[in-house]
Structure formats: structure tokens, C-alpha cells
Amino acid sequence: MIRVQQEDFDIGAEVARLRAGRSDIGAIVAFVGVVRDRAGAVEEMTLEHYPGMTEAELQRIEAEASSRWPLQASLIVHRYGKLRPNDNIMLVVTASEHREAAFRAAEFLMDYLKTRAPFWKCESGPQGSRWVEADARDDASTARWDDAKDAAE
Amino acid sequence: MSTRLLYFAWVKEKTGIAAEEVELPRDVTTVAELIVWLKTRGPEFAHAFARSDVIRAAIDRTHVRHDTRIGAAREIAFFPPITGG
User: Fold this and answer.
1) Which chain B residues contact residue A115 at CB under 8 A?
2) Which pLDDT band, with edges at 50, 70 and 90, does A153 fall under?
3) Is A128 exposed, middle or buried (0-12, 13-18, 19+ CB in 10 A)?
4) Going from the N-terminus, what domains does chain A have, and what CATH number goes with each?
5) What is the predicted pLDDT for the residue at A151?
């Protein structure tokens, strides 16, 4: 499942909904991305996205994770709009029988999301506003999965 | 046939528009050629696409490289490297 929304989310409620009534899940991994301040430089972060493509891309990324690892369930929630330091940005939850698939799939989803989901962060503070630059390490992090097509154990 | 062009983040700020419908010239067949043409449309576009190597593109909501042929694309988007997550 994927969701793109302005509103905040409750990680406890999301995980509870994902596992409700199921007895086939043995491991759940959840990752929350949070707005970080840089020593008082960030008062607000605006997340812009490409409606339509964002949803399509998140669905592709989620389907790719499910094809690589035996997942019982997964969830991606990504916010857009104006956020402040310490606000939630996004949530990834993966559920599997054993922990390895859940851990690896969550990491894969994060790496792919960072380089393929069309979101852009603009930080504003006392010094004005600036578009956050992409981190080349995210590309390198994503590229490592290219050599691991058979990663599903 | 007109094509919908979309601009995001600082590409949008520099062009000054978020979306437009344009008739593409016949000799524009790839994303790279489209960028070259867009740069001729005024100082805002020349500025927005000056660092064309860092601009990313999507055709009909799928990431594409600059050498991709436009074909029957209905929607082409231009944006900086993404920074979600």
C-alpha cells in the first residue's frame, strides 16, 4: 500500500492496521524519516511533489520490493507540503515471516524512494530558502541493489 | 498535437511557470533536443536549463534519459535531482 498525503501519520496506528487479523507475520520493520534542523538554519521545510507520477513511482518501487523478498505486507506513506523540524516526513513498513526480508526490503525501499520518487525539499530559515541538493551517496546506495537481483533468500 | 510540459522545484522557479501546453517543432525528437529548443524560448528558459546535465526528465510519468525519443508523449516533466525520503 502506498499513500501520499499532507497530514501527519501515527506509526502505531499504521502498524496496527497492517498486522490486524493476521497470524502469518513474524517480523515488522518500520522506518520514519524526520525533518532535521541544521543548527537553527531550518524553520520550515516545504516538500513539493509530482502528483500522479509520485503515486505511480511508489507503486513501482513497492512492487519491485515484493518481487525481490517474501513480504507479507508493506506500506509507504510520504507527506508533502509545509513541515517543521521534528515533523514526520515519511514512513516505510515491511512485514515478513523472518526479519531478514523485512530489514532488507525496508532498506531497499528507502534507497529507491530517495532516488526515484519525485519529491523535492525546500528548506527555509533566517538565511532565506534553498532547495536541498541531492546527495550522490543516495545514488551509490541505490546502485548496490543492481548487483543483487538474486538477493531474495 | 500539443504536448503538456511540467516544471518542478527550482526549474519551475526559474521558468516562472508550472505547466504549459506547447506545439513541439517537428525537428525536436529527443528529450535533449527539446531542452535545446526550450533554452531558445527566452532568458528565463535559458537560465532554467543552463545546467542541462543536472536536469532530470520524465515522459508520461516515467523517468527517462536525455537521449530518449519523445514519440507520442503527452506529458513531459523537467525537474532537479529528487530529494525525497
Assistant:
1) 82
2) very low
3) exposed
4) 2-147 (3.90.1170.40)
5) 47
Q: Is the confidence at residue A152, as pLDDT, over 60?
A: no
Contacts of B82 in chain A (CB under 8 A): 114-120, 134
ipTM (interface predicted TM)? 0.95
Mutate one of A119, A133, A139, A142 to test the B interface: name it (highest B CB count within 10 A): A119
**Can you list the residues of chain B whose pLDDT is less than 50?**
none
Structural contact between residues A77 and A90, judged by C-beta atoms closer than 8 angstroms: yes
Judge whether A92 and A104 are in contact, CB under 8 Å: no
Cell of A36: 532535521
The phi and psi torsions of A136 (rounded to 5 degrees) equal -60, -25
Which three three-digit cell numbers place residue A85?
Answer: 523540524
A81 — contact with chain B (CB < 8 Å)?
Answer: no
pLDDT digits (tens, 9 = 90+) for B7-26: 999 999 999 999 999 999 99
